[in-house]
Design a protein that fits this description.
alpha+beta; 6-stranded mixed β-sheet; globular
Length: about 425
């Protein structure tokens, strides 16, 4: 079916253009007749197998019947399935741009994209079976689906079930068998994406990070956002790889870039990871305190789990991009806080992060009046007091890595180094 016809039939506006990528390819592969993943029987069974309540299963089954009976909605459902579970190169970030479709499935539930994500159940089950994923880990991993659904439901006064394109983008990692919850934390198979290269000294084992070239940094060593690029003191990194040496700007383990260049001789320093190499991404679900011992247990479980069930995934580093790795938080919190102890286990590096995004994560929104901001946690109180007294936020860090060979939870291995710069 032609996309413009679908857009007109479903009255799509915002986000509709994001559907054009791979539309013709998806429609060529769409089977005739009923789409199996829209049948009420499949939807009910899928909801049970991912531990969703029967109430939601019935709502989703009814929605599946309506979507399957509407040619335009059916074509869109297949396209979404194709992008998430058949295409190997569809950019996952584009999913978040897809249009909301509450009217397509009626007034009882906004679950079009839930039907789409449930279509990936056979894919997930095949991966789990092929890699002998234990049932308890599969169950813990899938608990994230209910968590997101309940959070969306709780954010609206009408109490309706909702599932957004953003939810579908995130949960697709689970349903593709790429992400697993192991205790307190989640780990996702992916590629290292920090704009740095990581080296290890062949003799001492020390680890150093150099910035990729062409990255703008503030005078304090944090990444410059687009709004800060014209400020005084902003400088641009350079990286030169020559025979026998690498020249570039070092990143301190505390997440700050230095404007002075250093030279690493390749006879002494070996590159161990860089953008595009295999990695395990760390995700931190909203499951209560970030207890230090529980996090260490998760990392130990991850090392064993992926070695046993995905031995082909020879990753060199754990990594993460998160507001929790904003280095300035260490100045707001006591040394024994969970966040500070967590940060200190990693080598931090700068990523572009605005003060508003940091505030949104700390307070759940950007407060209009900081004097009236929530003060339920020690971090909220510390940041609110700082800003009320006239201070400002200048996020730095935001990214982190921990090389697999350096795992020694509690040792703070990178903070104990004495790098010459």
């Amino acid at each position: 079916m032609d996309l413009d016809e679908v857009i007109e039939e479903l009255k799509l506006s915002k986000g509709a253009e994001a559907l054009r990528l791979q539309w013709e390819v998806s429609q060529q592969s769409m089977p005739e007749g009923e789409l199996p993943f829209l049948s009420p029987e499949f939807v009910r069974r899928a909801c049970r197998e991912v531990y969703l309540p029967d109430e939601l299963g019935e709502l989703a089954a009814a929605a599946g019947r309506r979507v399957g009976a509407n040619p335009a909605a059916r074509a869109l459902a297949w396209h979404s399935y194709h992008c998430l579970f058949q295409s190997e190169d569809y950019p996952r970030g584009r999913v978040e741009e897809w249009p909301a479709l509450g009217e397509v499935v009626g007034d009882d539930a906004d679950v079009f994209y839930l039907l789409v994500i449930l279509s990936g159940l056979p894919t997930m089950q095949r991966v789990h079976q092929a890699h002998s994923v234990p049932a308890d880990i599969a169950r813990d991993t899938m608990s994230d689906l209910k968590l997101w659904l309940e959070e969306e439901k709780g954010e609206h006064p009408d109490g309706r079930w909702r599932f957004t394109p953003e939810n579908a983008s995130w949960l697709s990692y689970h349903f593709r068998g790429e992400l697993y919850r192991l205790g307190r934390l989640q780990f996702q198979m992916g590629q290292f994406a920090g704009r740095i290269r990581v080296f290890r000294h062949r003799g001492s084992g020390q680890v150093a990070a150099l910035s990729e070239g062409g990255v703008q940094y503030r005078a304090d060593g944090g990444r410059a956002t687009s709004g800060e690029s014209g400020e005084d003191g902003v400088w641009t990194s350079r990286l030169a790889v020559r025979e026998g040496e690498v020249i570039g700007h070092p990143i301190l383990p505390t997440g700050r870039a230095l404007p002075q260049e250093v030279r690493l001789g390749t006879g002494e320093w070996e590159q161990v990871t860089a953008p595009g190499q295999l990695a395990l991404w760390i995700h931190i679900p909203a499951l209560g305190p970030l207890a230090h011992d529980l996090c260490g247990e998760s990392f130990r479980a991850a090392l064993g789990f992926f070695a046993r069930h995905f031995p082909e995934w020879r990753f060199e580093a754990f990594c993460c991009h998160s507001w929790l790795f904003d280095a300035e938080l260490e100045g707001f919190l006591p040394a024994d806080s969970n966040i500070v102890r967590f940060q200190r286990e990693f080598y931090l590096f700068p990523v572009a992060m605005s003060a508003d995004s940091l505030l949104h994560n700390i307070f759940d929104e950007v407060p209009e009046d900081m004097r009236r901001a929530p003060r339920r946690t020690s971090l909220q109180r510390a940041v609110a007091d700082h800003l009320t007294a006239g201070g400002s936020l200048r996020p730095s860090g935001g990214g982190c890595f921990l090389l697999r060979e350096d795992f020694d939870w509690g040792a703070q291995v990178y903070r104990s180094q004495s790098l010459p710069w």
